[in-house]
Design goal:
Glycoprotein, Type 4 Pilin, OB fold (Dihydrolipoamide Acetyltransferase, E2P), 2 domains, 4-stranded antiparallel β-sheet, 1 helix, globular
């Protein structure tokens, strides 16, 4: 990253897929440097919703869409939910579905492209369950806990919103 004046430095706790991480962000002109633990990433905005991410020699593209207080970040076809950690967000009581491990919701209104599981299937945490297309991007939605598929409410091709679950699980804690 080129030298230059640091415009902003900030340390914030973020919740990424229900796990809290502390991130230090620094803005150097057009480049954001984000440090999480011992990993540092450089982000450059390519277009309105597209960012180039560099970690050493590795480089990826990330599509980012904001819906209410949550950012949906697609990196290499893996979808992450990112939001700032607050007492309300950590408790899961602010009106979103973050505390509901037994229900799988679309991150934003869209179309179900593919259901990757069947009723009765045993699933593991972070297993891909469904692919939803929204804003011309395919979003893979992963399980937040292990368990068994209890109900599938939609089929491939169906339009979905964010208010009804696509899949319900019997979660094993």
């Amino acid at each position: 990253m080129a030298g230059g004046m640091v415009n902003r430095v900030k340390q914030t706790d973020y919740i990424v897929d229900a796990i809290t991480h502390t991130a230090r962000t620094e803005k150097h002109e057009e480049v954001w440097r984000v440090t999480i633990g011992d990993k540092t990433f450089e982000l450059i905005q390519v277009s309105q919703h597209l960012f180039s991410i560099r970690n050493g020699a590795s480089q990826s593209l990330a599509a980012v869409i904001r819906h209410k207080d949550t950012y949906f970040v697609d990196v290499d076809s893996v979808l992450y939910e990112v939001r700032q950690a607050t007492d309300i967000a950590v408790s899961g009581s602010h009106g979103d579905h973050s505390g509901e491990k037994d229900k799988i919701f679309a991150p934003m209104p869209g179309k179900v492209v593919k259901i990757l599981v069947s009723v009765g299937d045993e699933i593991v945490e972070k297993q891909p369950l469904v692919i939803v297309e929204a804003m011309k991007m395919e979003n893979q939605i992963n399980a937040r806990a292990r368990g068994r598929v209890k109900t599938i409410h939609f089929n491939a091709g169906d339009q979905v919103g964010t208010d009804l679950p696509i899949i319900e699980l019997d979660v094993v804690e």
